[in-house]
Amino acid sequence: MSNEASFVPRWPTRISVCEVGPRDGLQNEKTMLSLEQKVELIDLISASGARIIEIGSFVNPKAVPQMADTDEVARRIRRVDGVEYRVLIFNLRGLERAEASGLKKAKLTVSASRTHSLKNAGKTPEEAVRSFSDCAEYAAAKGIVLSGAIPTSFGCAFEGRVSVEQVLSVVDSFIKIGIREISLSDSTGMATPRQVYDYSRMVLERQPEVIWNLHFHNTRGMGLANVTAGMLAGIDRFDGGFAGLGGCPFIPDASGNIASEDLIHMCNEMEIETDYELDKAISIARLVRQLVGHPTDSFILRAGKNSDLVRSQTEAAKN
Fold it and tell me: Is 135 one of the catalytic residues?
């Protein structure tokens, strides 16, 4: 990289945490939350300081029945000024539904893995992005902002490690249809911190005008380590899912997202601002755990905050 010698890794003073729990967290759950429960959760997230919320997806309800009521969820939530509400879409029909629901942000997704893309979409990644040209035209006409997500950016169950060149090819395809916000997504949980750092530096140098986001699953326990690698590379936007829920219905053994409360707690301890209030995030995670009715992959729900431990030890010493 031409600028790599002059680049000095620094911790950010602030990052954005996008809450994807209402979509990526709930889509793989056996327990079907009611419309009212979903609306309540999203309203609580809005009130917690979160500035970006992925409220659901417009997908065939036979494939992902948990998302069948996203239209009505979008209509019923209490919109808070300054909060971005977005949905995942897969075609023009999904975008039309987003627009009819009053949403101004939608996300398209195309796998970086050629094998995964061909098996699931019947197209190469580049062909899949080109097929979204009608979405790009419709969004431009309706004043809707489109972002792009690239699952299997770091690894694929069929191909193993995915090369950065293949990721950049999909990035270039997204840029050609006018998308300027892109998420590199570790949907299989195969990413490592060094790989995340290298890929993040590469995309930042090659496309500095793009708004970059990183999305990690904690399948092999490297989620927060990957976040820190992304931070040091210069990325300042990361997805998190309440209570650590999540998983992709189309990827074998995909586990949950990094828990939003774990990410926020880590940032608080590192003096990195997120806007997302930790205590409110923990309350939301506890409510989610109660609603789904099973333990979840959240370190903070299990162990509590660092300050809780210090307080309990101090009180024990007094007694």
Answer: no
